[in-house]
Amino acid sequence: MKVRFGAVTFDGERKLLFREGTVVPLSPKAFHLLELLVTRRPAAVSKADIQEALWPRTFVSESNLPALVNEVRHALGQSGHEPGFVRTVHGFGYAFDADVVEAGARPEAAHRHLLLWGSHEMDLLEGENVVGRERQASIWIGHPSVSREHARITVAGAKATLEDLGSKNGTFRDGVRVTRSVPLQDGDELVVGQVAVTYRFGVFEAQTPTAG
Fold this sequence. Notes:
Structural class: alpha+beta
Number of domains: 2
Order of helices and strands: EEEEHEHHEEEEEEEEEEEEEE
Strand order of the largest sheet: 10-9-19-18-15-16
Shape: elongated
Distance between the termini: 24 Å
CATH superfamily of the largest domain: Winged helix-like DNA-binding domain superfamily/Winged helix DNA-binding domain
Radius of gyration: 19 Å
Number of strands: 19
Helix content: 10-25%
Oligomer: single chain
Strand content: 35-45%
CATH topology of the largest domain: Arc Repressor Mutant, subunit A
Number of helices: 3
């Protein structure tokens, strides 16, 4: 299983977790916990089921599970003061609470829709891609000028459109504020809040995220 949620890519086959294109270290038990929650989404998983999956027929301290949950949340960049990917279901267990997009392997060279933000390449997938500061956003931009759900880019085949979602600081395409859905063309310069990104569409060599 390989899926994407927010700025995170979970690769179950290779046992790797990426955030913003960088490998994030995660202990085997914590990785197993995240895999279990993602697989069972959106259902909540009881503490008893988690215990049996992670420590079958073994007695462990009650503090082990909360420690693993904290490790997973930290790896995902989730703050304890705001909603995030792993939700506590009080008196029961935990649930994975985010939209997930299948992130299957793509050809070495293929038509891709991209947003370029500094050194980061962010793929735009078929359908709706919400751009925002919320960790669960399809395209996560962690800047205070960006609203939680700031803008939406909709991909339909070879076409893409951009619309603002009522953001506080606005969305701009080539210097003009976006007030309705507008088409995007390769090379368009976009400003989301105060963050400049570039929209690209074309044939690009696929890149594998690396550590560092």
